Amino acid sequence: MRNGLGSPCGRLLMSAPATSQARGGAAHGLCAFARLLPAALIAAAVLTSPVRGQDGGRSIAEGGSGGGAPACSSCHGQQGEGQPDSGFPRLSGLDRGYLTHQLDSFASGGRKNEIMGPIASALTPEERSAVAAFYAGLSAAGAQTKPSSQSVSAGGQLARLGEWSNGVPPCISCHGPTGAGVGGVFPALAGQNATYIANQLNAWRNGERANDPMGLMAAVAKRLTERQIEEVAAFFETLTPTRPGATP
Amino acid sequence: MSKAPFDPATQAAVVVFIGLAFLVGRTLPWSAPGEEPAAAARATAVEAKAPPQTPAAPQQAKTSQSPPAAPIAQPAAFTPQPETSIPDDDFGKAIRFGESIFQDTKTNAPGYVGNDLRCANCHLDRGRLPNSAPLWAAYVLYPAYRSKNEHVNTFAERLQGCFRFSMNGKAPPLGDPVLVALESYAYFLARGAPTGVKLAGQGYPALKKPESFDFGRGAEVYAQKCAICHGPEGQGQKSASATVFPPLWGPASYNWGAGMAVISNAAAFIKSNMPLGQGGSLSDQEAWDVAAFLDGHERPQDPRFAQTVEATRAKFHDTPMSAYGTTVNGVLLGASSPPSGPAPSR
Q: With an 8 Å Cβ cutoff, is B228 touching chain A?
C-alpha cells in the first residue's frame, strides 16, 4: 500500500474501538501500536511538511499541515476515495458542513477515534473547514463498489422499508432515496465502503460515536442486529455515489 | 411469488379470526360510557368533531352484562398482510400500484398532487404502522358519516378528501385507476380484519387537551427537535430533487382544509411518531405546543374558501383547534395563503 499502512493493520485500527471486545486479546498488541501511530504520523509530518496552513484544503490533504497533521491522502487516497479494505471512508463529494462537523467532533471527543482524534486536534478550526471544503468539492465518481449479493438484497430491504416493528425507520427516510445524503447532517451513504459504515453503526451502538444531533442515529443503531448492520452496510456500498447538494 | 390469494387454509383462518373478533367485540367494553364513538373521521385524522353515529362499537357490547362464555384474550393487535402475499395477478398489480402511489404520490398520481408530500409522510411504514393512521384500520370503518361534509362517505370518497386537502391537489374522479389502486392496497392490508371495528392502533391516539398550548413555546420545541430535519422555516429538505423531509407549512405543504391543520390531530401524530425513530419522546405539552406552532403558519388556502377569511372560519374552522382566520404571531392566517390546488401547468 502506498501509504505504508497494510490493509489488515488498517482494518484493525479502524474497527478497534467498535470491536476490540469481540476480538479480545488478538487485537491488543495492534491496538497498542495504533495508539502510537498518530503521534508517529504527526512527528513525521512536522519533519517533512513546510508550514502551509493558508494554502487551503488541498495542501493539507496532500501534504499535511504546519501544525503537524499528516496528509489526509495517506489514508483516504489521492482522490479522497477511501480504502474499502481498511475501512477508511471515502471523503470525496461528502457535504462540507458534515465533514467540518466530523473533524470538529474528532477534536472535541464527541466522536472518539484513536487515529483521527490527534490529527483533527492538530488542525486549526480554519484548517478543518478548508480541508472539508476541499473534499466536498471533489467528485465522488470512481468510488469503489462491489457486486451485489444476498446480504445486499436483505440490506436493501432494511434501507428502503425499515423494520418498523422494531422502531427502525428506513435509512432512506433520512439519507435520501438514493443514499445521496441530506444537507450537512445526514451524510451520503451511497458508495461509501461497507467496512466504514459498519464500523460507524457499531460505534454508535457502543457510544464511541455520539456526535449525531438528538441521538437520532444512535437510537436507530442500537436497535439493529450485527447481521443487519453488515447487510445494510453492504447494500450502501453497492450504490453509485451522487452529489445531493451540488447545484448545477 | 405467491399463489392463489385465498387458499382454503387462509379462508379457514379468516373465518376463525372473525369469529374470535366477534366474541371479543361482544364481551369487551368497546364503547365505554363517555368514550367517543369510533370516529371514522379520525381514522385518518380529519376533524375535531366526531360523527353522530359509528360503524364500530357493536351494539351487543352495551347489552353484554353476563360473563363471557369462553375465556377472552385481550384483542391482539391486527397485523396487516405481508408483502409476500400480494397475488401475482391483475389484482396484485393494482395493490402494488396502490403501494407505489402511497410511497411516491406525486410521481405515481401526477396531476392530483399539488404539494411536496407523500401519503406515507403521515401514514408511516407505507400505511402499516399502528398509531400512525394505518390504512388497514381506516378501511374497515367505511362507509361512514362524516361531519366534515355531512354525508355518508365511501372509502373512495374519503381518499378523494386526502388528495383535495392533505395533498393540496385535486380529487381523482371515482373509478379513476389511482383511487382503485389505493383502495385495493388498503383492502389488501386489511384482509382478515373485522369490519366495522375500531382496531387497536387506529388513527393517532388522542392526547388529553392541556390547559393551554402556545405558539412561542412550540417555536422553541421546533427549533430544538424538528428543524434539523424539517428546516428552520418548515420548508422541508430535499436530496437532489426528491423531497426527503416533508414541508410542514408554506406553499408546498398541506392546505388549510387538511386534517393535519387541526391542532389536536397534529399533536396526536407528533406525540406518537416524531421525531422519526423516537416516537413518544416528546411530552404531551411539547407535542401540543409544537403542533400549535406549525399549524400557526400560513399554508395553501382552504379549497372550500367562502368569499372571506372570516366566513370561511365561521363555516369550517370554528374551533379552538384551528388557527385559520385568527391572528397568530402578527399574521392573520388565511389572509395571504397561497392558492390551493396544483399549480396550473406551464
A: yes
